[in-house]
Amino acid sequence: MTVMDQQIGHSMDSLTAKAGIRMGRGRPIGPRPDPTRIKHVRAALYASGQTVQSWARDNGETPAQVYKVLNGDRACTSGEAHRIAVKLGIKDAAPAPAASDA
């Protein structure tokens, strides 16, 4: 606890806990994808008879990362997990940046 925290009477941990922010390794944990959308994607894969591994191979992704997205272990806010979530339909694609007039 720093000197400033002692003067205020609380630590940063108590502030984040009061705000309902979950922490992971010193940084806030991002919101996870909607569990109902994940269930629908799993049901669609099952109904089509396609395994998660075959979907991953067909789409050029690693099966381990696809499982992590489907299990809700990744926030899917950026990088590989976000790309997988968009391909699966769990998340909507980010809108394209507007072209500048300059």
Folded structure, characterized:
This protein has 102 residues and is mostly helical. It has a domain at 35-88. Helix content is 52%, strand content 4%. It contains six helices and two strands; from the N terminus they run ααββαααα. A two-stranded antiparallel ribbon has the order 1-2. A hairpin with a 2-residue loop joins strand 1 and strand 2 (27-28). The longest helix is centred in the middle third of the chain and has 14 residues, at 35-48. The radius of gyration is 19 Å and the shape is globular.
Summarize the structure in short.
With about 100 residues, the protein is mostly helical. The chain is about 50% helix and about 5% strand. It has a domain at about 35-90.
List the helices and strands and how they pair.
Elements: H1 3-8, H2 12-19, E1 23-24, E2 27-28, H3 35-48, H4 52-58, H5 63-70, H6 79-88
Antiparallel strand pairs: 1-2
Helix pairs in contact: 4-5, 5-6
Helix count, per DSSP? Answer: 6
Rounded average pLDDT? 78
- Which H/E pattern describes the elements? HHEEHHHH
**Main beta-sheet annotation:** 2 strands, antiparallel
Shape: globular
